[in-house]
Design a protein that fits this description.
Chain A is of the alpha+beta class and 698 residues long. In chain A, 30% of the residues lie in helices and 22% in strands. Chain A has three domains: 153 residues, Aldehyde Oxidoreductase, domain 4; 150 residues, 2-Layer Sandwich (Aldehyde Oxidoreductase, domain 4); 269 residues, 2-Layer Sandwich (Aldehyde Oxidoreductase, domain 4), CATH 3.30.365.10. The radius of gyration of chain A is 27 Å and the shape is globular. The mean pLDDT of chain A is 96. Chain B is an alpha+beta fold. Chain B has two domains: 75 residues, Ubiquitin-like (UB roll); 75 residues, Orthogonal Bundle (DNA polymerase, domain 1). Classes of the chains: A alpha+beta (698), B alpha+beta (157). Chain A: This is Molybdopterin-dependent oxidoreductase.
């Protein structure tokens, strides 16, 4: 019996909450985890098929829907496999146990001889007339999972890794919320004020906007402004016409986030400490910083909403249908039962982007057109300017290392705006246009994610190395005009960059080997194994250094509780800085779907290289200035290095997730490659030509 | 004024009328039901809307639909035709070359134009041909490998 229930089973305790016979020998598996392009539904379907011993094709898997699925909170934090998968394994194992019990009764056979094979009940080696799906349809599944759950031990699973169940449709089909076109569809556009304090100019001509061809209605409520039109072309044309005439009055505000972070008198809180830091001068002591980053989804934030007599239905690529439902219901003053939020595919989001905001806005527009579905898509400028952004932050690291490479102390001091302002957190809806309404639902003062969830700003700020003494502190700065929220890895990206860059600086100062020093300060066996594996798989790179080509390494265990990753990046410094080769060794415990995990690790590495080499949002005072991809270059095909990944599979260990394991180590390994070439660390990200030159001249 | 435009799309003759200046992307998606080409940025910066016009990749998000009068348009739907899957589609599935997939139809169309051209096939050549298209998930390496495989299948390598 499961001693500790996965979170999803607390809100959805019954087998019938997770599994439904749908006839024809098939079962439906309901998960509350969303497919975000990361392959979650494929891996979860595979886990269900393995646990039930049924052919994967006999299963249908459906995603989050407040009208049908378990409440599993947000699909975030690389927890879909470790928590979502554990729930699926519990529920499916409970169904198997229940069905086998029923089969034993009907066959008058010994339970211990019965099993399921390819969906059929077998008695010893003999097939019976009974099937798992058939029996499941004839018994009461409204019983607690926890009464029957007993997932198979690792060795008893027949691994049958599935290819992505949805990839083909994503190439030649129309699987996105952007593609939904129900009968009677109307098309929305919204006009986002540049900041939450901007005001529409008094002489704005909304009457003429309302009379543009095809415009059904103009919706204005406080600072929220949008239109609904009969066709997408008419919505686009009316929006273009209006945007050329639209002006906002934006009060002055700060324009330098790093100045604000430094100047803030917010409390510096201790996160973790041990022993007393040395009083001697540190071997390395500096502050690294990263700018605001955009999630930069390829598809604009989009939602479809429809009001009927029964209430409101919203289709959204949100990461959390239940928290979003609560937030939307609160804004409209409706009971939650009258709001249904259904997950629909969007482009990859990499964290909290505009998806949830667009969902409320579509509902605000649709309320003005009762009965008709309204589809709203943001434009690219809003995607950069109105969506939450990844926090600009700074981390000071001091390291004490003796002549032999032993660490005597580490001090990590993180200064950051919040990383977690998702819907229905911090006691408010936390939706952009909700804040702007005539009767507003203002953004609250956010807190940080608790350490139990890996922390937010200070994520990975506590060193994993045996450091003698350490002190990790965090200053959380709220009240800045820029709206920040979760972007993959949260604070771990910069904190790992800071720790590993300072460590490398100390290693260079002492003239020691980067692998040996890290190994000497790590006792944990799995930490040491990823580093050893990385060294072995990089033998073709190590020793091949030139003046303009070198490599660096970095190591971290994500959240200090999830996957271990050691990374080597080889870089070339010519006219531009280029990453040429990447090697990754990763231990994520059990690897459920090896190719899916590889894809996540490769993608995480390439995205992190893009952040680290190129990305920074520009500011226009208190507003985001970046308006398009032209202002926000990301890594392109001709800039992609060779990425090679090896995973240390541990089928007997719990699966730990991997989507955010490498972002910090990849950035730090690249930075360390540069540091080994130019002799000094680069403190300001991204690692553009300018920041490298600044580091050399400093 | 609405004008009537006749063209060939994925081998079939199609006729539509749209207000002058309406983008080809909107006509494909909202009028003709061909939704594989996707709106990403609407300003020729990301490539999600890429289709082929007379064999050349174009950003359909800004191309006035009336400009394709008498021309041939190819969208990603054509890769899964009645005569079976195109080698590019097969190779992308084989390599599991994608994550969220929003960018994929545009990238597939660029890859197709490259493989249909006379350019000698190389990894660098493929990367250069795909460069106008962005992928945010970081599946580039798989896509490059998939196009190389498809080239071999098509006798282009």
């Amino acid at each position: 019996m499961a001693a500790k229930l996965p979170p999803g089973l607390q809100s959805a305790p019954l087998i019938s909450d997770w599994l439904t016979p749908i006839g024809g020998g098939r079962l439906r598996v309901c998960t509350g985890r969303a497919e975000l392009g990361q392959g979650a539904l494929t891996a979860l379907k595979q886990m269900a098929a393995e646990e039930l011993d049924v052919p994967p094709d006999s299963l249908e898997i459906t995603g989050p829907d407040t009208g049908a699925s378990p409440d599993e909170g947000f699909t975030a934090g690389s927890l879909s496999i470790s928590q979502g998968g554990a729930a699926i394994r519990s529920a499916t194992s409970a169904l198997r146990a229940l069905v086998l019990g029923e089969a034993a009764r009907r066959l008058n056979a010994g339970l211990s001889l019965l099993a399921v094979k390819q969906g059929r009940i077998i008695d010893g080696e003999t097939a019976t007339d009974l099937t798992l799906a058939g029996l499941a349809g004839e018994i009461d599944l409204g019983v607690p999972v926890s009464d029957h759950a007993g997932p198979k031990p690792a060795g008893a699973r027949h691994l049958n890794a599935l290819d992505r169940i949805d990839l083909r449709d994503r190439m030649v089909g129309a699987p996105f919320v952007h593609d939904m076109a129900p009968e009677g569809l109307l098309f929305g556009r919204v006009f986002h004020p540049p900041t939450l304090d901007s005001r529409l100019a008094d002489d704005t001509d909304l009457d003429t906007l309302a009379s543009r061809p095809g415009v059904v209605t103009v919706v204005r409520d406080g600072g929220f402004l949008g239109i609904v039109a009969e066709t997408e072309a008419q919505a686009a044309a009316a929006a273009r016409w209006f945007e050329a005439r639209l002006s906002w009055a934006t009060p002055d505000g700060p324009s330098d986030p790093f100045h604000e972070l430094e100047a803030s008198d917010a409390e510096v809180e201790e996160i973790d400490s041990a022993g007393m830091l040395p009083e001697a001068e540190a071997t390395a002591d500096f502050t690294v910083r990263r700018p605001f980053l955009s999630h930069g989804a390829m598809g604009p934030s989009t939602a479809l909403a429809q009001w009927t007599e029964e209430g409101l239905t919203v289709w959204s690529h949100t990461q959390g249908v239940y928290p979003l439902r609560k937030a939307i219901a609160e804004v409209f003053g409706e009971p939650e039962e009258r709001v249904r939020v259904i997950h629909a595919n969007g482009a990859g989001c990499y964290g909290h982007n505009g998806a949830d905001d667009a969902a409320l806005e579509a509902a605000l527009l649709a309320r003005a057109c009762p009965g008709r579905p309204v589809r709203l898509s943001w434009n690219r400028a809003s995607e950069f300017r109105a969506a939450p952004v990844g926090a600009a932050m700074m981390t000071r690291v001091r390291i004490w290392m003796d002549e032999t490479g032993r660490l005597d102390g580490m001090h990590v001091n993180v200064t950051s705006p919040p990383h977690a302002t998702r819907p229905s957190t911090n006691g408010a809806p936390c939706l952009r246009s909700g804040h702007l309404l005539d009767k507003p639902f203002p953004f609250p003062v956010p807190g940080d994610l608790p350490a139990a969830r890996g922390g937010g700003a200070a994520r990975n700020g506590v060193p994993l190395y045996g450091t003698g003494a350490h002190l990790t502190e965090r200053k959380l700065v709220t009240g800045l005009p820029w709206r920040t929220s979760s972007l993959r890895a949260l604070g771990a990206y910069l904190n790992v960059y800071g720790i590993e860059t300072a460590l490398e600086a100390a290693i260079i100062e002492r003239g020691l080997d980067p692998f040996e020093v890290r190994l000497a300060n790590l006792e944990d066996k799995r930490s040491r194994e990823v580093l050893e594996r990385l060294r072995a798989m990089s033998s073709d790179i190590i020793g091949e250094e030139t003046e303009e080509r070198n490599w660096g390494i970095a190591f971290a265990r994500y959240k200090n509780t999830a996957a271990w990753a050691a990374v080597l990046v080889e870089a070339e410094l010519g006219d531009e800085l280029r990453a040429t080769r990447v090697r990754i060794a990763c231990d994520m415990g059990e690897v459920v779907n090896p190719d899916g995990a590889l894809n996540q690790l490769e993608g995480g590495a390439i995205q992190s290289l893009s952040w680290t080499l190129k990305e920074a949002l520009t500011l226009d005072g208190p507003a985001i200035g970046t308006a398009g991809w032209g202002d926000y270059p990301i890594l392109r095909f001709s800039e992609i290095p060779e990425v090679r990944v090896e995973m240390i599979d541990r089928p007997e260990e719990p699966p730990l997730g991997c989507a955010e394991a490498v972002q910090g180590p990849v950035a730090a390994a690249l930075g360390n490659a540069v540091q080994r070439m130019i002799g000094v660390p680069v403190l300001s990200l991204p690692l553009t030509r300018e920041s490298v030159i600044a580091a050399v001249s400093a | 004024m609405d004008g009537e435009t006749t063209c060939t799309i994925n081998g079939e003759q199609r006729r539509f009328s749209a207000e002058e200046g309406t983008s080809l992307l909107l006509v494909l998606r909202e009028q003709l039901g061909l939704r594989s080409a996707r709106l990403g940025c609407g300003e020729e910066s990301c490539g999600a809307c890429t289709v082929l016009v007379d064999g050349e990749p174009v950003f359909s998000c800004t191309l006035p639909a009336e400009d394709i009068e008498g021309k041939t348009v190819t969208t990603a739907e054509s890769l899964a035709g009645p005569e079976g899957d195109h080698p590019l589609l097969t190779a992308f599935l084989e390599h599991q070359a994608g994550q969220c997939g929003y960018c994929l139809p545009g990238i597939l169309m660029r890859a197709r134009a490259y493989l249909d051209s006379d350019a000698p096939v190389s990894r660098e050549g493929i990367a250069a041909a795909l460069d106008p298209s962005l992928c945010r998930c970081g599946a580039h390496q798989r896509m490059l490998n998939a196009v190389l495989d498809a080239a071999e299948q098509m006798g282009r390598a």
